[in-house]
Write a structure and sequence with these properties.
single chain, about 210 residues, alpha/beta, seven-stranded mixed beta sheet, two-stranded parallel ribbon, 8 helices, about 30% strand, elongated
């Protein structure tokens, strides 16, 4: 894209920043080689509200009126466990079996339980045996065999020691939203980058869900 230059700050969760954005930005650079992209790894929307970032990638639709959001799509995900966890604790055969298994908590325990319950997966509070506000830290804990953790299939497939649990029953959909401040509409550069990111993320999601 000729004439597209300057700096754009993109914020995303630490998992997305580490395992999704690098490929996305490689493709974006081919389209806009004079553009500088800075990645802000953060798990909340404050970076956009405080103008610390221009564009955000989030898994929950923001409800702040000063923000605009575009749904990219829903990525398939499952509960995953390390092979070492399955060897030590056995593999659950039904959703009811999950009552006897340990989980890793991301962020607030209550919200984690509520979000998983919406997806048909019930977690007892006492079975959240470890947790972190960092998705990467949670994933590392799960890899060490401490418990089960939900993850998009496209990222989990990068880790051969992690296996899906209850592949049929634990399938969940995780939405991806592209978010920006309404003031973005006054900036041609940000509008173009927003649309390019939307196209690249949509294409990536389409390819990963087709695998």
């Amino acid at each position: 894209t000729k004439g597209l230059e300057g700096r754009v700050k993109v914020t995303a969760s630490d998992m997305t920043s580490a395992y999704v954005l690098p490929d996305v930005l490689v493709r974006l650079r081919r389209l806009a080689p004079d553009l500088r992209i800075d990645v802000i790894s953060a798990n909340d929307i404050r970076a956009i509200l405080h103008r610390e970032a221009d564009i955000a990638i989030r898994h929950v639709r923001p409800d702040q009126p000063e923000l605009i959001a575009r749904l990219i799509g829903n990525a398939p995900a499952h509960l995953y466990a390390a092979k070492s966890y399955i060897e030590a604790n056995g593999e659950p055969n039904s959703l009811d079996d999950l009552n006897h298994h340990d989980f890793i908590s991301l962020g607030d325990d209550r919200r984690m339980i509520e979000e998983m319950s919406k997806r048909g997966i019930c977690i007892k509070p006492e079975k959240l045996i470890a947790g972190s506000t960092s998705g990467i830290a949670c994933w590392e804990l799960a890899q060490k065999g401490l418990g089960l953790f939900p993850m998009t299939d496209s990222i989990a497939n990068l880790f051969p020691n992690m296996i899906p649990v209850l592949a049929e029953d634990s399938r969940i959909e995780i939405p991806t939203w592209l978010v920006a401040h309404r003031d973005m509409q006054t900036s041609r550069r940000l509008r173009i980058v927003f649309d390019l990111l939307a196209d690249i993320l949509t294409d990536r999601l389409r390819k990963t869900t087709a695998q």
